[in-house]
Amino acid sequence: MAGEEPNSVMARENMRRISSEHLTGQDACIEIIDVFQDYRTALEYDILVTPALLASGPGGEVVILGNLRETEKVLAALRSVGIQPRIPQQCH
Amino acid sequence: MGQAEAGSPASPSRAGGDSPHAKRYTTIDIPKEPTGIQGLDWVLQGGFPRGRVTLVCGGPGSGKTVLGMEFIYRGAEQGMPGMFVSFEEEAVSLRRNALSLGWDLQRLEKQNLLGLLDPMPRPGSVPAGEFSLHGLAAILAGKAEELGVCRIAIDAIDVLLRLFKDPIQEREELHFLHAWLLKKGMTAVLTVKRDGANGTDQYGFLDYMADCVLMLDQRITTQISTRRVRVLKYRGSGFGRNEYPFIIEDGGINLLPVSEAELSYQPMGPTVPSGLPGLDSILNGGYRRNSTLLISGAPGIGKTTIASCFVREACSRGERVLYINLEESEESMVQCMLSPGVDLRPALEQGALVIRTLMPESMGAEEHLIRILRELDSFGASHLVIDAVSACKRMGSKQSTFEFLLRIIYGCKDRGVTCLFTNQETLPAQSMEFDEFGILSMIDTVLVLRYEERDGSLQRSILAVKSRGNRHSTRRHHFTIGDQGIEIHDAGPFDPNRPGGSGLGESHAR
Known about the structure:
The complex is a heterodimer. Chain A is an alpha+beta fold. Chain A has helices at about 5-20, 40-45, 70-80, and strands at about 50-55, 60-65. In chain A, strands 1-2 form a two-stranded antiparallel sheet. The termini of chain A are far apart. Chain B is an alpha/beta fold. Chain B has 2 domains: about 35-120 and about 135-255, 3-Layer(aba) Sandwich (Rossmann fold); about 270-490, P-loop containing nucleotide triphosphate hydrolases (Rossmann fold, 3-Layer(aba) Sandwich). Chain B has helices at about 40-45, 65-75, 90-100, 105-110, 135-145, 155-160, 165-185, 205-210, 260, 275-280, 305-315, 330-340, 345-350, 365-380, 400-415, and strands at about 30-35, 50, 55-60, 80-85, 115, 125, 150-155, 185-195, 210-220, 225-235, 245-250, 250-255, 270, 285-290, 290-295, 320-325, 355, 385, 420-425, 445-455, 455-465, 475-480, 485-490. A 9-stranded mixed sheet of chain B has the order 5-4-7-8-3-9-10-11-12, sandwiched between helices. A 9-stranded mixed sheet of chain B has the order 17-16-18-19-15-20-21-22-23, with helices on both faces. Chain B is elongated and about 100 Å long. The two termini of chain B are about 25 Å apart. Residues about 1-25 and about 500-510 of chain B have low confidence and may be disordered. Classes of the chains: A alpha+beta, B alpha/beta. β2 of chain A pairs parallel with β6 of chain B, so a sheet runs across the interface.
């Protein structure tokens, strides 16, 4: 995250939404790092753009860039490293 | 050779001290950061614009990374902390490459004068929404503050921009970065891969953003590769307008702008003997220090022999001579000179004489020039001999040969070095037309050697066509080459009591 920069704020909200809708019941740990507070971690992970989500799952790691507006892409990326999102039942 | 000019308007004088010619530049309003790169600060009239962005473009292998790195390195050496950020190469490899140029980056890193960052944009990142370069900004800010950095070089910014698929966003991100750099007051150098010749103007907008733009170029002309740099733009400052050849050698980048040396000639010095008494008579005492001489003639007539006599004489006075031979090896030349009785071995053994054999085709004229001048300086020679300048045309184009000779002459006059050229004439010499390089006007003394048929036999003659600063004999004098050397006939002994005999005689305007 980059402080209160708009994309980062949006990303935080989207992350909250996605995790509550799709990741409940999973052992997921979400760590938020503000690059402006901690640049060393950013450097360590080669985080050049923000917001960026580094997801590690059983199948490996993937970096998802952006404010996470495009939910489908996020879920697909998570799937690619073995994190299976739960699709909420649509009630008609 | 020159030293890093620290912060003051660059003076073209290499002889040190304030040159009156520095004032011919328009007042420099904007503050500049000297690059410390040999010759570049002169072209930029001081250095890069302080607190602003300079763009360095060029194709692959043109030297952009080295330039950016040298800027930071030189600054760090002077105690100004700097940061080098590469999106293309890892820090380990950067350090190793720097070492090959003789730069010890690790030492400066340990002293906290240099920061090397190699954040690589991760391949395979999935975009899912808008993002921006704040991460980079944070890293740079963090590291910059830690070191107290005021200079930054960002290498291969085009690699970073590839993250952004949308050209409009690329521009926005770059504006963001630019604004951030300005806010922090950093003097920044950005390098970008760009093929100038094809003009892929994908990054054309970068030109508008930067205050100063340099274009590096590596091209092959007549089968020899040369590097050139050109200042495309420099907002708020004058700059050298030409293309300047440069080389990358041990120690870094080295430019040599033509006009640099012309303004600070050292005047011709006192007359010294040439080692050939007959020639001293012809030239009214000998030749003058700091002057340029040319000996021209057909093959085998005695040019190298005369040059060797000069050399032997100068070395016997305790002076040092650098002899550049473009035609034969040292052993061969020394051996050959034994037969007319000129023994160069003592001078070689004492270290007063250094003979260098050069293959003109081995590198471009600019590289030859820089290497010769560098050796002149490190050896501390007072005389330079080039045998034969006619072979120089194999260095590349006629233009580059002309410039090479011109700059050798300037370089010698600037340093107070006496310069002797020999010129091999290939055509039967019927006329005086041997100035195929057009440098005759720059040469002070011209001696022409001819074969003549006389009384049924072939005889040699020498004629002083001109000798600036000396009254000289205008007659042809016959000479012979025997076991004891060259003997010039009917020249008469040199008489110091003759009117004007001290060699100050007729001085020509110079």
